[in-house]
Amino acid sequence: MKLTVEQLAERIGAELVGNPDYFDRQIKSIGPIDATGENDITFVSNEKHRKTLNCSRAGAVIVSRPLEDLPMPQLVVGDVNEALIEVLNLFAPELKAPSVGIDTTAKVGRDVKIGDAVSIGAYAIIDDGVEIGQNSVIGGGCKIGQNSRIGKNCRLDSNVVVYHNCFLGNNVIVQANTVIGAIGFGYSYINGVHRLIPHNGGVIIEDFVEIGANCCVDRAKFGNTIIGAGTKIDNLVQIAHNVVIGRCCLIAGQTGISGSCTVGDDVVMGGQVGLTDNIKVGNAVMIGGQTGVTKNIPAGQKIMGTPALELTEALRSISLVRHLPKMTGQLKELNKRLEELEAAKDHKA
Q1: CATH number of 101-312
Q2: Do the domains 101-312 and 3-90 match in fold?
Q3: Looking at the DSSP assignment, which residues form a beta bridge with residue 104?
């Protein structure tokens, strides 16, 4: 894809500001401020990056307001991040689209219902009673278990496994090697051995959910593990049995959510967050990276640390920890002086 600066501005609905002599400059790609050339466009979504623009060799820049003394044309938009998504899509690599139809190496069971314009890749296995909605893509090596349902416009990348009796809504994306519907980690200690508790429930993934690579979403003991519509999950995330996650949540990589937790809508979890079992997290909670959550969190709170503390309290604790070496030295000095005073007092007595 090649577009002039002027054509690109038209594509994203931007106001074009700067020297008209550069409006016909060819733009071939997009990149960061410090690693672009005259045929690249860059962007400024944060004021702290403004100063580095003067040293950039970019051919144009996307900004939210006109900036003074810049040599390159400026594409002024209402929302830089929205414009960035549009431009990234314009300059995305042109990959071969999946072929509609069932690959000759795929195995399809009995009573399978497949919608129009579905693509099933090489060596995929579709078990009995599966339903796949129109325009969905099942990548090579995927395995869909008995009686599971995949909605319309879904994309399952290579080697995704969906166990039996699971439901994926419409417009769901699951990246490579993720497993949905495996048996949860639930055991009872009986007669000296750990006995696995049967997990007879399922998994429900609602519309517009996106799940990264190498994630695990375990099936419920009874009922369903549920991930709400619009939720986005990073790579390497573990979601245990009977967890219920609300709508439009963001969950970063290496997070682990233990069994029977309930997470509200619009919750944000940083990387490596851990929730113990049966925790309830309210709507719009923000949880900082590496936080260990051991009790219920009311709606709207910002928390971090292990164990989790309200953000202001957590930051205060971190500040105190940093001062501990100095405070330890001061305490030793005070103890020494106290001992000297006590010794002098005893000597006088």
Answers
A1: 2.160.10.10
A2: no
A3: none
Of the candidates 312, 309, 289, the one whose C-alpha atom is nearest the C-alpha of residue 297 is: 309
Residue 46, helix vs strand vs coil:
coil
How far CA 53 is from CA of 22, 76, 183, in Å, comes to: 17, 15, 52
In sequence order, the β-bridge partners of residue 49 are: none
The CA-atom distances, in angstroms, between 94 and each of 28, 51, 91, 100 are 13, 34, 8, 18
Using DSSP's 3-state secondary structure scheme, residue 326 falls into: helix
Active-site positions? 241
- Cα distance between residue 224 and residue 258, in whole Å: 14
The first and second tokens of residue 147, run together, are 């009686």
Give the integer Cα–Cα distance in Å for 340 and 334: 10
- Burial tier of 132 (Cβ tally within 10 Å: 0-12, 13-18, 19+): buried
- Residue 287's closest CA among 305, 265, 260, 261? 305
User: Residue 37 has what DSSP assignment?
Assistant: -
Q: Which two tokens stand for residue 192?
A: 């000296």
Give yes or no for a contact between 211 and 228, defined as CB atoms under 8 angstroms apart: no
Q: Which helix (H) or strand (E) holds 345?
A: helix 324-348
Q: What is the CATH number of domain 3-90?
A: 3.40.1390.10
The whole-angstrom separation of Cα 46 and Cα 28 is 24
| Domain residue ranges in the chain | 3-90, 101-312, 320-349
Q: Give the global pTM.
A: 0.86
What tens-digit pLDDT sequence spans the chain (349 residues)? 789 999 999 999 999 999 999 999 999 999 998 888 999 999 998 877 777 887 889 999 999 999 888 889 999 999 999 999 999 999 998 888 899 999 999 999 999 999 999 999 999 999 999 999 999 999 999 999 999 999 999 999 999 999 999 999 999 999 999 999 999 999 999 999 999 999 999 999 999 999 999 999 999 999 999 999 999 999 999 999 999 999 999 999 999 999 999 999 999 999 999 999 999 999 999 999 999 999 999 999 999 998 887 877 877 777 777 877 888 888 888 888 888 777 777 666 5
Helix (H) or strand (E) holding 315: helix 311-322
